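Lab notebook, bench 4. The sequencing result for the construct came back, and we need a structural model before the next group meeting so we can plan mutations. Quick request posted to the team channel:

Model the 3D structure of this chain.
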Amino acid sequence: MVKPSNPIDRLVGSRVKMRRTSLGVTQVKLAEAVGVSFQQVQKYEKGTNRISASALQQIAKFLEVPAAYFFEGANSVEASFLSGFAEENDATYVADFLSTMEGQQLARAFSRIQDAKVRKRLVDLVLSLAPVEAVDLPASSDDSSS
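Done. Here's the predicted structure in token form:
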């Protein structure tokens, strides 16, 4: 019988993956720095295997973040888990999105746009293109700038 992974382990793993990919570090390089196989890094990132405290400290040092970085959003994950909600929480959803190449490209490009009206229009465009049932955020109510 396969034991389901713990939501906190999945969160920590997704944060490791997000940071690793945002720095352009491969799983092989991270594995070498921590002294594990790249397959082990894959299991860490999926939350299949729990990361020990010493390994997490090594990962944090190599990825140049405090160890606490990997637990950001843990309170909401735990609350969702304990209350029985089946839906993914926002922190995990965002981490999963930002761990993709498209998510990183979009975040980098979007953050370079200085004009707030242009950023707002881009958000409105994306919301208009997304299927209604997949959009969790309400459409912008400020239509006077359009």
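Residues 42 and 117 are 40 Å apart (CA to CA).
Will bring this to the meeting.
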